[in-house]
């Protein structure tokens, strides 16, 4: 058994330790982000548009760039199950999935947060069936927003890399101990290539610090314990125990807001790239109204806002990066600056006939105790594009709110394309 | 900002070509985004890739609907789809073909045309009609938007086996030198 | 012959061998009276020892409190309550990490037939295909006995269960059980064997081999576990029912390795009539002659088929 | 930001996890304390061993699902705090040394 010897002298390409410019797409960027975090165990199963991500991971393992156990298992369900096992044995773990794969993974997926297992899973977002489709959209990620995973949406390929690495530290923070989804838009980010900076590995090693996976729950003969005994019921200690576990999980989620901010700050200080960790405000301070965006659509929205500003429109952008936990305070700080909002979703909320980001934003705004005129826009489903021209129309429609216009229904962006 | 659309057929390496071009442009200090049009990328089916480049940061992550130039790395793809769709007046077309300028139907407001018999070059070098790197050379020659040197560097970091790299470097060079450029009318729109 | 001299000697030798080893479950597990599964897991873990991670997917085994309840455990070794669907892949993940850090820890699954052959099958098949190093034990009580005796893929034709009841239009389960041990043999695992606790020497022998095999790759043990509660027979008769299963060839005892092929560990010649076995069990009480003949035919065919495998492997 | 220093991956070195003495009891459902429940009160009938007939063949021990058979100098006895009264021992004893009798009173 050579595992130990191999581990002490890792056979890793020196170039991996240097900062360099790469031209790559979001899936390769995610794989580099994983490489920098030095996972122990990765389990994978391919699914469009995530497939090239796990191909990159496999290639990195083949080339020795990543020294991790790679498990090519027979489906997403086993992906998440194997990772839970590995994490309970102390491993730093990673996978990526989306759409139907995420749906198939769901049963073990919803267990990871309750076990308080830090773990990172990229969601290369994909619209859900049916209609049958293989293209991007946020519906898959939105369907699991109540599963207890932290969710961060990336805007750029560079942000995919940086956020993927940061996600490990966020999840492993002792006050958090939760799994993290790093969401990148299928097609546009997954396959969109651009020039990015790969940070130097030693800087990232210093940033990552000690691995912190399973001090609370271990399947280790040196520390025998039962993990996940039946808990609950209506009598005895059950009800209070169950409630306390649940509350602690919610507390971890709330702690994550602080930890996400601290982690982004530290990343910026060490690596040199700063991001708005929760909510980004763009040209908002003197804005009358704002668009609320999420994910890669934001770039086109910024271009459209600049054009509108040139026309004298006082419009800005509130971009949500962290969607779970929902950054209520940060959102409300931004919302308090404007008189109306147009929220653009890349998915739908079936129950409320609007976008889920719209619904969440309004729920937060309710705490402002003032009426906020608003409109829900739905676009970019199943790989469709939300262009600068689309956003110019969104801006125009949102501006109508200031004139007293009211929208009873969501506005469908690509419906007449 | 310059917007380029590449047309080809599945299996010909149109998407790889867009990545090589992106690497070359980044090498020259440009900001670039390259997005493949997505559909069913089966061997033989018409495929497209979009590239934007600029001296300033590019924020939009969108497909391209009104390109400044069009590069068709396959001669027959013009029969399958309208490669000129949305092409800006005064735009550029770089095309892989044995035909002459006169034999082709050109859009009225086309400004620059580059023609390269890429298949013949490919058959000599690869013994197979692989034209993507040849046509990148043709694009560089026609537009001057990227240098041959940078393209070669972009090629070197792409994932080719050793022999493939040398062949492709030669192919790119020949594509560059064996492209005929026609300036049909003065530029109506200045492309960056 | 349940009371022969052979039996006498055998039980003594097992006790001599294993009697001093610690029972690694707490005394108070809430299995039914006469539970064959409780007997099985106590013997098993005693022999496996404490350097182990145990996974018990939903079913009677965690249901009897092995993973505990409201903060108290029923097992003295690391134990996890995985999903019904993912036991094999979850253990595979644990093993990968222990291999990575250079620790030799045994992975043991104690799963019911539903977690093995029904919803658990995909992860099991995948783990077997990848030859993951683990000992996967199927405790086959022919249905979902923990949740009220519903039918599973392992329930034999004709059986009464709560989802294959007996009435005017249906007389118990309409389709045959699948033979999971055979299916696992076709995965070419490091070791596959069937066992019955009425033949304890045979079981311990196979458990030892399976444990050794699990250090190299995937080992699968299929143990038949008659359930007095769900099958409707007196708790005191559990072992007798086990014995009759084997004596009638309803259950055959064999083992398989890729090199040796299939070998019977107890002769399948001159079996007792199946009807004698069926008579003893409440869930078969309603069977008509056609159903009994069908089951007898199936038993005979299974034996024929297994013998064919035995001969094939002997040739190769 | 370029550096050529090669540093070994911190978590590739075989690690021994240092577990904390105490874990918050509300973090995740785990249990390391054994359940002290004894099922002796489940019985309707109790086994009684005839010491003269017992030859210590261990058949009862082998087949007792709750493993409540205890070895005495000259016979095997039953731990009645644990015995659920299933009767397997009496049914299987080759020497008919165990009989089941009704539990009466406390």
TrEMBL record, chain A:
Specify one Pfam family: POR_N
Q: Does the keyword Oxidoreductase apply?
A: yes
Record-annotated Pyruvate flavodoxin/ferredoxin oxidoreductase pyrimidine binding domain positions: 34-231
One GO BP: carboxylic acid metabolic process
InterPro entries in the cross-refs: PadG, PFOR_II, Pyruvate:ferred/Flavod_OxRd, Pyrv_Fd/Flavodoxin_OxRdtase_N, THDP-binding, Transketo_C/PFOR_II
Q: Which domain of life is it from?
A: Bacteria
Molecular-function GO terms, alphabetical:
oxidoreductase activity, acting on the aldehyde or oxo group of donors
Q: Does the keyword Lyase apply?
A: no
Q: Which UniProt keywords apply?
A: Oxidoreductase
What sequence ranges are listed for the domain Pyruvate:ferredoxin oxidoreductase core? 287-390
Q: What is this protein called?
A: Phenylglyoxylate dehydrogenase
Automatic annotation (TrEMBL), chain B:
Q: Which InterPro entries match?
A: Oxidoreductase_gamma_subunit, PadE, PorC_KorC, Pyrv/ketoisovalerate_OxRed_cat, Pyrv_flavodox_OxRed_cen
Q: Which domain of life is it from?
A: Bacteria
Keyword Oxidoreductase on entry: yes
Any idea which GO molecular function terms this record carries? oxidoreductase activity, acting on the aldehyde or oxo group of donors, iron-sulfur protein as acceptor
The alphabetical list of record keywords is: Oxidoreductase
Domain (Pyruvate/ketoisovalerate oxidoreductase catalytic) ranges: 10-176
- Which PANTHER family does the annotation name? PYRUVATE SYNTHASE SUBUNIT PORC
Protein's name in the database: Ketoisovalerate oxidoreductase
TrEMBL record, chain D:
**SUPFAM superfamilies recorded:** 4Fe-4S ferredoxins
Pfam families for this protein: Fer4_21
InterPro entries linked:
4Fe4S_Fe-S-bd, 4Fe4S_Fe_S_CS, PadF, PorD_KorD
Q: Where is the 4Fe-4S ferredoxin-type domain?
A: 45-73, 74-103
Q: PROSITE patterns recorded for this chain?
A: 4FE4S_FER_1 (PS00198), 4FE4S_FER_2 (PS51379)
Look up the record and name the cofactor or cofactors this protein needs: [4Fe-4S] cluster
4Fe-4S found in the keyword field: yes
Q: Which UniProt keywords apply?
A: 4Fe-4S, Iron, Iron-sulfur, Metal-binding, Repeat
Q: Which domain of life is it from?
A: Bacteria
Q: In Gene Ontology terms, what is one molecular function of this protein?
A: metal ion binding
Q: What is this protein called?
A: Ferredoxin oxidoreductase
| Organism annotation | Amphritea balenae
Source species taxonomy: Bacteria, Pseudomonadati, Pseudomonadota, Gammaproteobacteria, Oceanospirillales
């Amino acid at each position: 058994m050579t595992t130990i010897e191999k581990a002490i002298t890792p056979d890793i390409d020196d170039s991996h330790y240097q900062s360099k410019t790469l031209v790559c797409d979001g899936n390769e960027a995610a794989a580099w982000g994983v490489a920098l975090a030095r996972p122990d165990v990765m389990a994978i199963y391919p699914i469009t548009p995530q497939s090239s991500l796990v191909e990159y991971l496999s290639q990195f393992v083949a080339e020795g760039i990543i020294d991790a156990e790679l498990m090519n298992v027979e489906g997403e369900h086993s992906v998440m199950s194997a990772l839970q096992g590995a994490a309970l044995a102390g491993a730093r773990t990673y996978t990526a999935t989306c759409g139907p794969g995420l749906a198939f993974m769901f049963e073990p997926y919803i267990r990871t947060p309750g076990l308080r297992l830090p773990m990172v899973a990229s969601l290369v977002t994909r619209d859900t069936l049916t209609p049958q489709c293989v293209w991007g959209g946020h519906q898959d990620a939105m369907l699991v927003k109540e599963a207890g995973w932290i969710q961060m949406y990336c805007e750029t390929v560079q942000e995919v890399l940086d956020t993927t690495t940061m996600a490990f530290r966020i999840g492993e923070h002792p006050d958090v101990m939760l799994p993290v989804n790093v969401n990148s838009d299928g097609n546009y980010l997954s396959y969109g290539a651009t020039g990015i900076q790969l940070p130097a590995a030693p800087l990232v090693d210093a940033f990552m610090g000690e691995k912190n996976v399973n001090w609370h729950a271990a399947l280790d003969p040196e520390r025998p314990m039962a993990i996940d005994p039946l808990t609950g019921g209506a009598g005895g200690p059950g009800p209070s125990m169950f409630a306390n576990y649940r509350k602690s999980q919610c507390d971890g989620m709330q702690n994550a807001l602080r930890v996400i901010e601290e982690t982004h700050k530290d990343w910026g200080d060490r690596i040199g790239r700063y991001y708005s960790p929760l909510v980004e405000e763009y040209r908002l301070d003197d804005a009358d109204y704002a668009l609320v965006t999420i994910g890669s659509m934001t770039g086109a929205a910024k271009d459209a806002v600049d054009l509108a500003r040139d026309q004298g429109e006082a419009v800005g952008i509130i971009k949500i990066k962290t969607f779970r936990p929902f950054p209520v305070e940060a959102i409300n700080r931004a919302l308090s600056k404007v008189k109306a909002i147009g929220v653009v979703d890349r998915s739908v909320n079936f129950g409320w006939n609007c976008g889920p980001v719209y619904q969440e934003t309004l729920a937060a705004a309710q705490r402002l105790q003032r009426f906020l005129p608003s409109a829900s826009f739905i676009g970019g489903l199943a790989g469709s594009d939300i262009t600068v021209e689309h956003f110019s129309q969104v801006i125009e429609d949102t501006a109508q709110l200031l004139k007293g216009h009211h929208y009873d229904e969501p506005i469908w962006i690509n419906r007449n394309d | 900002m310059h917007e380029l659309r590449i047309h080809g057929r599945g299996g010909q390496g149109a998407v790889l070509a867009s990545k090589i071009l992106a690497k070359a442009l980044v090498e020259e200090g440009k900001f670039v985004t390259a997005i493949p049009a997505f559909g069913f990328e089966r061997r033989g089916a018409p495929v497209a890739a979009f590239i934007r480049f600029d001296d300033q940061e590019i924020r939009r992550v969108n497909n391209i609907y009104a390109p400044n130039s069009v590069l068709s790395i396959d001669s027959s793809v013009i029969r399958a789809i309208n490669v000129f769709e949305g092409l800006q007046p005064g735009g550029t077309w770089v095309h892989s073909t044995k035909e002459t300028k006169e034999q082709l139907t050109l859009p009225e407001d086309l400004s620059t045309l580059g023609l390269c018999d890429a298949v013949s070059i490919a058959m000599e070098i690869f013994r197979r009609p692989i034209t993507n790197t040849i046509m990148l050379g043709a694009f560089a020659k026609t537009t001057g938007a990227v240098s041959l040197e940078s393209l070669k560097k972009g090629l070197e970091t792409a994932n080719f086996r050793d022999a493939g790299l040398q062949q492709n470097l030669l192919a790119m060079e020949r594509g560059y030198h064996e492209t005929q450029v026609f300036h049909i009318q003065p530029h109506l729109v200045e492309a960056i | 012959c349940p009371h022969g001299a052979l039996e006498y000697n055998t039980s003594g030798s097992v006790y001599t061998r294993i009697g001093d080893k610690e029972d690694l479950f707490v005394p108070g597990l809430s299995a039914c009276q006469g539970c064959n599964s409780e007997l099985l897991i106590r013997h098993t873990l005693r022999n496996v020892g404490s350097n182990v991670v145990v996974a018990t997917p939903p079913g009677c085994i965690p249901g009897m409190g092995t993973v505990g309840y409201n903060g108290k455990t029923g097992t003295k070794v690391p134990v996890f309550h995985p999903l019904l669907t993912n036991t094999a892949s979850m253990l595979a993940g644990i093993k990968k990490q222990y291999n990575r850090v250079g620790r030799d820890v045994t992975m043991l699954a104690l799963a019911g037939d539903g977690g093995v052959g029904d919803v658990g099958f995909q992860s099991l098949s995948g783990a077997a295909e990848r030859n993951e190093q683990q000992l996967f034990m199927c405790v086959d009580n022919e249905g979902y006995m923990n949740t009220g005796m519903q039918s599973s893929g392992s329930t034999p034709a004709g059986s009464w269960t709560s989802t294959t009841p007996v009435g005017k239009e249906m007389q118990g389960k309409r389709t045959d059980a699948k033979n999971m041990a055979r299916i696992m043999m076709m995965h070419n695992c490091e070791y596959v064997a069937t066992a019955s606790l009425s033949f304890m020497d045979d079981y311990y022998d196979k458990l030892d081999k399976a444990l050794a095999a699990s250090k190299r790759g995937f080992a699968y043990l299929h143990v038949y576990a008659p359930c007095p509660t769900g099958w409707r027979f007196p708790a005191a008769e559990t072992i007798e029912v086990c014995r009759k299963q084997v004596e009638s060839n309803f259950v055959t005892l064999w083992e398989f390795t890729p090199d040796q092929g299939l070998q019977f560990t107890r002769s399948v010649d001159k079996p007792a009539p199946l009807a004698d076995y069926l008579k003893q069990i409440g869930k078969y009480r309603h069977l008509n002659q056609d159903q009994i003949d069908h089951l007898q035919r199936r038993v005979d065919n299974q034996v024929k088929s297994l013998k064919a495998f035995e001969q094939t492997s002997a040739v190769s | 930001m370029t550096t050529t220093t090669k540093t070994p991956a911190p978590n590739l070195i075989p690690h021994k996890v240092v577990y904390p003495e105490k874990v918050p009891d509300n973090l995740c459902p785990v249990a390391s304390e054994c359940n002290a429940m004894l099922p002796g009160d489940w019985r309707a009938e109790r086994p009684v061993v005839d010491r003269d007939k017992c030859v210590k063949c261990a058949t009862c021990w082998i087949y007792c699902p709750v493993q409540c058979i205890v070895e005495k100098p000259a016979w095997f006895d039953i731990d009645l705090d644990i015995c659920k009264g299933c009767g397997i021992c009496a049914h299987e004893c080759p020497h008919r040394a165990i009989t089941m009798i009704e539990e009466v009173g406390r």
